[in-house]
Amino acid sequence: MKTALLVGATGLVGSALLPLLLAADRYAKVIVVGRRPVPLVHPKLVQVVTELSELDNVRLRLIADDVYCCVGTTMRQAGSKEAFFEVDFRYVVKLAALATANFAAQFLVVSAMGADAASRFYYNRVKGEMEAIVRPAPFRALHIFRPSLLLGQRTAPRLGEQVGTFFLQLVGPLLRGSWRNYRAVPAAAVAQAMLRAAESEDREVHIHESGSLQA
Fold first, then answer.
1. How many CB atoms lie within 10 A of CB 52?
2. pTM for the model
């Protein structure tokens, strides 16, 4: 049996993924790392409380077979481009480097639909730059998930996302073909797709576009 490491367990996707990891026969231990503990007690669960900027200080406590990265914020939440870049690029890249140093077999990371290092949109460009740095890492398998707008119960609802969610739910059934990627996707579906990808034991790099996550 294997060990899973989850970073971002208090977010929308991470909070949906954690109970799946704990219930999975695949894992004997699930390590959760974050700046605050999750309010959960489970015989498989090991919590490491630290700032993500200090991951190197706890590296030997974060040894795992499969590393799940669900870290992410928004420009509004972060408050500035630099703060957004710190979370969505630096922390993710740092975690990938740490996972490489700890000889993790798989790295599974939540990116975003439209991620492109050449994008004129800052959000998509940062996500694309993160992917470009992570892709060459020598994992047996790298899974990048690019969801559209995420559906789920947030602790702090975002007005813009509420409006976008309403619109996408309204027009979603009409979207076909490649336009299917623009449908809003439940965070729980992304979490399920991440665990399935890890269990598949596929090799090399895999990009999971939002349309495929709908299924």
1. 18
2. 0.87
Residue 49 in contact with residue 39, Cβ under 8 Å?
Answer: no
Reduce the DSSP state of residue 79 to 3 states and report it: coil
Where residue 63 falls (left for φ over 0; alpha for ψ -120 to 50; beta otherwise) is beta
pLDDT tens readout for residues 154-190: 555 554 545 444 444 554 454 445 546 677 899 999 9
CA pair distance 177, 183, nearest whole angstrom: 11
User: For the CA atoms of the chain, what is the radius of gyration?
Assistant: 16
Q: Which residues contact 189 (CB under 8 A, 6 or more apart)?
A: 213, 214
Mean pLDDT calculated for residue range 108-122? 95
* Mean pLDDT along residues 63-70: 98
Domains recognised in the chain with CATH numbers: 2-156+186-213 (3.40.50.720)
Q: Which position has the higher pLDDT, 189 or 212?
A: 189
Q: Which of 50, 48, 51 is nearest to 62 (CA)?
A: 48
Q: Edge-to-edge strands of the sheet including 66-69?
A: 45-49, 27-34, 2-7, 66-69, 106-110, 141-146, 204-209
